[in-house]
Fold FAD-binding FR-type domain-containing protein.
Amino acid sequence: MAVAKQAQVVRAKTVGAHTRLLELVATEPLGFVGGQYIIIDSGLVSANGKAVKRAYSLLSSDADQHRFQLAVQRIPNGPGSEFLHGLEAGMKISFSGPWGKLFLRERVPGATLILATDTGITAALGLIRSTEFTPLLAETSFIWLRTSSDYFLPDDFVRGLVPEDCREVRIEAIPEIDRPERISHAQAILGQVLLHGGLTRMFLSGDGAVNSVLLDELVRAGVPATKDNIESFFNMPKKSA
């Protein structure tokens, strides 16, 4: 059973049109590495009797294990996001974690690709801001694909969080979720990256349907890539029986 932990909000502000940026301080060290997430218990109960809990990636660097940031997109009629958007400085939350497999395991020198779609940008930012990632920045390409410039987090805000030593930062538009051309668009962008060859590692986060196809492309291209390099936020692939 997951152990409940506590944190207090020390700052809350609106970023963009529909996103709340929360800065919190935990009562004990989190013990997380960049790319992981926590699960917040809102204390609410849904109509079917289940506790309303939501996963949020840690946006901030793992250099500080007490103070951390979360970015929360408001979801219409979403009790979890409504709860978090209502938090102000001084209020407390209960959570479990850290959880997740999207983190750097080996600092083998070489080119790295981090490609995020949609809200997967939070996991990607946590990953690239991790202390273990610092020696790899000069050979890292960081790509965020989102539906529009006013989606979730402002482009300039995201660019400002990517470490300056990162070799390449690309933020581009992608068709809306569930549009048939969305995956082919992402494939074309990955193809541009693969033209340069020599990828040592890759990380994907966000749309599970996109992640699954791109993972297959990377494997076919000979890039060391497994499901451990992926964190899907939605459109999860069906588990085999």
Residues 43 and 81 are 13 Å apart (CA to CA). The mean pLDDT is 95.
